[in-house]
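re the bet — no i am not wrong, look at it urself. input seq straight from the record:
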Amino acid sequence: MPVSGVPNGQHRQVGAPVVTQLHGVMTTHGAEQGLLVAWGGLTKPALKNQHLRVRVWEAGDVVDAVLRTYDRLPEEIRTQVPLRRAWMLSDAGL
């Protein structure tokens, strides 16, 4: 799986050209929907170029999805992303 690295842990916003390219690939392959994971979010022009056919996930969306479905992920993925549930006392009502 190709991965594009970002230097020094900086998360750049995805621009309109990436969204346009995704739409082109979707059209070429007849895809009804696309998913764009933009760890740093989208630029304003990219937001204007986003259509209902493309769903955009930012960092928080990815983390929420992993935590919500972790127990149902294949063993191979859980081995690559080993997480352990931790319980803490709530301060609610104290």
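see?? Residues 1-8 have pLDDT under 50 and may be disordered. told u. also Residues 18 and 46 are 8 Å apart (CA to CA). so pay up
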